[in-house]
Amino acid sequence: MAYLKDAEDLNRILQAFILNEEAYFLQLVAEIHSRLARGKKILVFGNGGSASQAQHFAAELVNRYLQERAPLKAIALTTDTSILTSVANDSDFTQIFVRQIEALGEEGDIALGLTTSGRSPNIRAAFDIARRRGLLTVCLTGEKGKELAEMVDYLLAVPSTSTPRIQEVHLFLLHKLAEELESRLSSNSG
Predict the structure, then answer these.
(1) What's the pLDDT tens digit per position in 109-135?
(2) Is 156 in contact with 126 (CB distance < 8 Å)?
(3) CB atoms near residue 54 (< 10 Å)
(4) Considering the entire predicted model, what is its pTM?
(5) Burial of residue 2, with CB atoms counted within 10 A of its CB: 0-12 exposed, 13-18 middle, 19 or more buried
(6) Which of 34, 29, 75 is closest to 174 using CA atoms?
(7) Which of 97, 106, 138, 158 has the smallest number of Cβ neighbours within 10 A?
(8) 74: Cα separation from own chain's centroid
(9) Positive or negative, the Cα torsion across 18, 175, 11, 144?
């Protein structure tokens, strides 16, 4: 029955997040929608499991989530191993996303980072450069990452310290974000 306990825990965490943050989340959706509708792009990044979620989210925006529609501009900064290893080797691992934001990020774009702990130095450095360059900064994190609120424009902190539960809620939120953006952008083009 451990599975049932985990499912109940996930449900409790997800419901708590939605009850407390739904209006804030929808405000974020509207802001990202506005920027994408104006031709801006979203740069997504994270480490480990969060890196794979960043790639998954970017794929859903570029290809499709639930509807056939025009592609949305999204780039996962975790996919180019030559850039990642080159920057990490020649400079420092904390710069792997910074250099890409410097190269690809333009004022008005969106920098969306995922960090379950909120302590990843490369994520923090990425938010710092993104803010200085005029990008909208969005962080998905866990309960311990609330201190990032001062570093980003939007902080979505899952009320948990369990890495698996945080990542599960992050995936749910990324799916809802993709669904909302797809719906809004599709209805604007019709």
Answers:
(1) 999 999 999 999 999 999 999 999 999
(2) no
(3) 27
(4) 0.96
(5) exposed
(6) 29
(7) 106
(8) 11
(9) negative
